Amino acid sequence: MPDSPKRSSLSRRDALKWFTGTAAGTAAAAHAAPTAAPPHETEPTPLSYPSRYVFHDPDFSKPYVAPWENVMTPEELSATKALADIILPKDDLGPAASECGVAEFINEWISAPYEEHHETCEAIRGGLGWLNTESFRRFQKRFDELAVAEQTQIVDDICDSSKAKPQHKVGASFFKKFRKLALGGYYTHSSTWKQLGYMGNVTLAGPYPGVPDDIVKKYGLEDVA
Question: N or C: the chain end with fewer CB closer than 10 Å?
Answer without folding.
Answer: N
